[in-house]
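ingest -> validate -> predict -> emit
validate: passed (alphabet ok, no gaps, 364 aa)
predict: started
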Amino acid sequence: GTVATGFWLIPSFHVDQIAGGSALVLLLLSGVLLGTSLKSAGALVVALPAVFFLKAPALSQVVMETGTKAEVVFRQGSFYGPISVVDYTYPPNHTREMLIGGTIQGGVDMISGEPLFPYAYYLERAALTFKPDARKALVIGLGPGLIPARLGRYGLTGTVVEIDPHVAAVAQDYFGFRQDAFKIVVADGRQFIESTTEIFDVILLDAFTAENEPSHMLTREAFQAMKRHLNPGGVFVINLAAMAPYAGADNVVLDSVLRTMSEVFPETRAFCSSTTSPGSVDNFTLVGRLGGRNTAVAPPPFLPVHPMAAASVEGFMATSYIPNGSLGGVYTDDWCPVEAQGANIKLIVRKQLIAGTPAEILLD
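emit:
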């Protein structure tokens, strides 16, 4: 029962379907027993009402207080969390978001095609500022496909690794991702980097599904593997959620990841938007660099930024985050309690989502 539920039922079916199917099985067994005792096959009719539970509930639609229509246009079970695609329409605007496990993984303006959230711009700007002559990149974590799509517009090519084949399909079917500049490889990011022979100018780690960090991707050994696949002067960039700085918050995860990176990369930096309110959670951009920056090559002109993200993106690299020297340790394959240490971040993220997203959408 445990194996079938955890590895087959939950990844494959909606919760309502699982409940209805369980009811059907119980009623069928009862009908068989009753029919045997009464010697009448007609007793199986007691199982018929459960059939109505097998149809998944209709996709959610709700009109928010602002007049915006929120609509789930797609949902699918997955081993890594249920996937939903949500459209928000408030004429003439139309945006779309991908949710995994009820948390937002990215969003796009369906009219302009530009990403909605600042983290996408953080990553591309950090990568191209510190490695302006980059030509080949590895992106670990696909989501809606916004990061590799943006890098492709700068002329970069490479590989994007995604552990969930359903996410890869949704990115192509609902967010327009095309395997032109970047090919998709369905694999675990750590396993891929340990086995590939490719060398890259830039490696971007954006593999944080729902509220869980892949601890095996944040260790000293994992970073050493990344380093082995970077060209001289190459750049390793991480998107990591953490508490907004300078509010007395416990950022032990952020500080630990930075300390771990510093043991592998000669120069390590962290950047965060100055517009985030103290006490909230924001996306930090961590950069590990091999060798000095090539100042002879200027960063390319950056692509347009969506108005929703413009204030956060403007000047976000002007000030580096300074870690607390007394916090954090070095994460290793033998010791990496990142999920437990980041429990406060997960709680705040979930509260922010509940406050800003209709319950009907989150629960769909």
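The mean pLDDT is 88.
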